[in-house]
Amino acid sequence: MTRTASVTRTTKETDITVELNLDGDGASTSDTGIAFFDHMLEQLGKHAGWNLDITCKGDLQVDGHHTVEDCGIAIGTALTEALGDKAGVRRFASITVPLDEAAVEVSLDLAGRNFVVHEVPVPYETIDGFDTGLLEDFVRAFAQAANMTIHVHLRSGRSPHHICEAEFKAMAKALGDACGLTGRDGVPSTKGTLSGT
């Protein structure tokens, strides 16, 4: 079974290409024009154990919002494609990841229903072109496109950089676990489907 996807998303605001292999080795690249965001997306691929390659040309002369949100949509779309019917996946995962003084907990379900609880009061800062206020926008766009339920809670933290990075790493580890194959046949649901319908 090949769990890969190639997604292109083009609008008047962004032009994005995503290449995703869920059974990769964590080697990932990102070129969005926002240095800190690239660093976060590379963390996502690395710690999920995916090969995730992203390029995005966005209207950064306006601001970073379209780039960040649309990348979330494109990556979520690629994840949906790569998972297919989700047969044999673990489905649920939860982890708390620390980074120095920061600790972020992520719990998620590849349920086929998108629902987001995001309780991460990250201090406002612009880090290498990345507005920390966009952190939640990325998660919401990603979860909606991936048809995923996700709960994110800040357990402790002071540095915006550490909080953002702990969140991306926690999402990555939880996603890597939830997308992992158990060796069992069939879809892990009494409904017989994880399509959300």
CATH architecture: 2-Layer Sandwich
Q: What string, H for helix and E for strand, traces the elements in order?
A: EEEHEHEEEEEHEH
Tally of distinct domains: 1
| Radius of gyration of CA atoms, rounded to a whole number | 16 Å
Shape: globular
CATH fourth-tier homologous superfamily: Imidazole glycerol phosphate dehydratase, domain 1
Strand content: 25-35%
Q: Ends: how far apart? A: 25 Å
Unreliably modeled segments: none
Structural class: alpha+beta
Number of helical elements: 4
- Please write the CATH class name: Alpha Beta
User: How many DSSP-defined strands?
Assistant: 10
Strand order, main sheet: write it out: 1-2-4-3
| CATH fold node name | Ribosomal Protein S5, domain 2
Helix content: 25-40%
Q: Mean pLDDT, nearest integer?
A: 94
For the largest beta-sheet, the strand count, sense and barrel status come to: 4 strands, mixed
